Amino acid sequence: MKSLIAAILSFATPFAAHAGADWQKKALSAVKAEKTVLDAKWRMPSQNVLWVAMAADGSSRDGFAEYLCEVITDTAPAGALKTVWIYDPATYKAGGTPMGTAACK
Question: Which among 15, 1, 64 has a CA at the least distance from the CA of 35?
Fold first, then answer.
């Protein structure tokens, strides 16, 4: 019985990983299409953490992070929690904090 379960899991794992990759690629393309986004990448793809680079203008980007949650949620599987972090590359390299964050529902 244990070997049957192991066989099923080993067979299903590549399909689950591929399915995740498809929606993550679509979400990443949609985020990168936003005019104010400099770059975006899945920092921790297995945990659905998206990092988005934007130029700093002194304002909080929490609202934009929430908007990106909506963009991502449109492509994601139902119930998958996603997190968006918005940062300025120069400030981040100097030890700065994110300009905006959101936990998508």
Answer: 64
Q: pLDDT digit string (tens) for 20-74?
A: 578 889 999 999 999 999 999 998 888 889 999 999 988 999 999 999 999 988 8
- Report the alpha-carbon distance of residue 20 to residue 28 in Å, rounded: 12
* Ordered structural domains, the chain, with CATH: 2-104 (3.30.300)
Amino acid residing at 94? A
**CA–CA separation, 55 and 38 (whole Å):** 7
Residue 17 makes CB contacts below 8 A (sequence gap 6+) with none
The half-sphere exposure of 45 on its side-chain side, counting CA atoms within 13 A, is 15
Q: How far apart are CA 64 and CA 88, in angstroms?
A: 14
∠ CA 101-103-105, nearest 5°, is 150
Q: Which residues share a beta bridge with 83?
A: 49, 103
**Secondary structure percentages of the chain, helix, strand, coil, to 5:** 50, 25, 30
What residues are paired with 42 via a beta bridge?
A: 50
